[in-house]
Amino acid sequence: MRSDRRPLPVPPAHRTRPARPRPALGLAFAGLFVLAACDEPPPPTPAELPPIVGTMEVPISLRNDGPRPTEALRIEANASEMHLDGRALLPLERGRFARSDLGPDGAPTALRTALQAAPARSRATLTLHGMVGYGTLARTVLALTAAGYREISLAVRPVSTSGAPPTSMGWLPLTSPTVVPWGRDPVDPAAYGGGGRPWSDFVGQWRNVYEACRAAGAERYIDCDMPGQAPAEGGFLQTILWARGQGMMVRFQRVGAPPPEPTQAARPQLIEGVRAAPTGEGEELPPDPSVTGAFNFRAETATMAESPISETVRPVCGAAPCQVVVESDEETPIMRVLSFVGAAFPNGSPPPVLVLRLPR
User: Fold this and answer.
1) Are residues 201 and 245 in the same domain?
2) pLDDT tens digits for range 12-64
3) SS3 of 80, please?
């Protein structure tokens, strides 16, 4: 039988409500979104720039057998720019840092900041165009040593004995170099860890050094100091390599001791208008004690396969390391300076304890 009754109304408490999304489900979707974002690859690292210094543009050096450094910071520089690890760092003005960028100690501020931001390493390589000034080299080494780099290798090329150009660069290593401010006085031996070799090591070889210098011939040497008649006693030996323009000088200097007393007899002072007695005719006064011996060469001798500079330095520094101070001006090209260092200490000789003096 058909019923005409309508269904009873459902009480409000029993009505079915649409389901609401649970917070946990929303968090899950949010987590998936974050994971998807984390899976995105990082932006690509900018490609390194091509080298800005070629093999035939680095200085020639008779010391070039250092090992190629691995895991080293790389610095390149030519006349117009400097690169760090294959990326442009700062512009240069004719191969020199802008004066406005130099800090109180003489190091370039932009380079110092970049070194602090770079990954920590103990080795660095410098590939510098031969026409870059000595001041740029010294200030770059100053910034590197201040940042903790102790092994610095300079790109050089060997002397060609066959006429064929070199196919690869060699390396001139600098181990724990020191950089000191400009000054006229000899460098304090404390700058390189103490006195080192005694002055007598040079005095005993002075005659051999002089003869090696003279053997180069007048077309190659400029001047050679004869052995002193009365060398000073005591003190330590400091070897200075000075380069400027077309001239190079090796100077062996007595340091770390008081100046010797002059041996020339002082003439009496005037007393109440009485003139001092004249020195006897023909009488020779003894010379002052010798405290330095200098040997000057023309720049082209530094790149000869058998350099007279090597022969001149060898009697003193060929068997034991010498404490060496390198001096030059801001503009002298490093092709002169590094060729000079390589000629003084060629392959096979003990490496020098090296100090670079900042230019004025």
Assistant:
1) yes
2) 544 555 555 555 545 444 444 444 455 566 666 678 999 999 999 999 999 99
3) coil
